């Protein structure tokens, strides 16, 4: 039987993915290749909704794709492509926009949050219609499943509503995507502010571990991570968020249970934990960096891989768009 389809996208809005991106999302992308037919997209159309520099965007899209291949996305098994190379995305988004209520779109909390930060008069129409483009991304591939974190639940709900609405207005065209809830998805927090999410918009670069940064710099950040003033290494996300975060990262990258780690560090100090974790993380990123650089050092080959990905994507997206056009009378 055919494998279920999964779709996911990530924005090329930083010079490197960070450890939170990897542990919260990208490692699951890699794992899903085993069970699903996977479509993964570097969503550069989404990345221009809040202002950008063209040169930087182009470079970031390439580095994002190189990192994804380096992390283990296999172009033989999965389809990895850059969104702007598949024109069906904005074409379907227009159609879906025409069956989305203005009020419905206005209720998206992520738009409210982001536009509030920018000053709502200055935020773009693209930022407002972003979730509609996201629905098009998913529906074009007839995705059965979409891995989602809490922050994307409302957007996936909109995608489901739009699929159902289109199907009932014009006839069955789209698969209604279901959330793929990943068990034990690690939420990684900021090393300097251990109650806040590690994020590219974190207030201090010392709080974020970028996959592509100098390993010595990573080791230093881990050694300087904020912890409490206690001495005991136990997992207590409320009382000891800094130590809990270090244990979470350690466990996720080493495959060792948190309980095992706690037992192994009984009687040892925070400094020992940090020193060992620094080694675990730097050993983890080193080969990823080497492979990423390998892809970036051969731009023609990377272009070829991405062109092939876009072609595979269009082989699915094209027929979906044509079916939708046909049903609406084009
Ligand atoms: P950022 O928070 O740095 O802006 P994005 O919002 O672009 O990152 O997130 C890309 C993906 O990485 C999403 O699937 C998101 O849930 C995941 N992610 C981001 N930060 C973390 C984190 N600190 N812990 C776990 N997952 C995260
Ligand atoms: Na974010």
TrEMBL record:
Binding site for L-tryptophan: 137
Coiled-coil region list: none
Binding site for ATP: 11-13, 20-21, 149-151, 188, 197-201
Short motif ('KMSKS' region): ranges: 197-201
Highest taxon of source: Bacteria
Enzyme class: ligase
UniProt keyword list: Aminoacyl-tRNA synthetase, ATP-binding, Cytoplasm, Ligase, Nucleotide-binding, Protein biosynthesis
EC id: 6.1.1.2
Subcellular location: Cytoplasm
MF-aspect GO terms: tryptophan-tRNA ligase activity
Reaction equation(s) it catalyzes: tRNA(Trp) + L-tryptophan + ATP = L-tryptophyl-tRNA(Trp) + AMP + diphosphate + H(+)
UniProt-listed CDD domains: TrpRS_core (cd00806)
Subunit composition and interactions: Homodimer.
Family: Belongs to the class-I aminoacyl-tRNA synthetase family.
Annotated function: Catalyzes the attachment of tryptophan to tRNA(Trp).
Protein's recorded name: Tryptophan--tRNA ligase
Native species: Micromonospora musae
Phylogenetic placement of the source organism: Bacteria, Bacillati, Actinomycetota, Actinomycetes, Micromonosporales
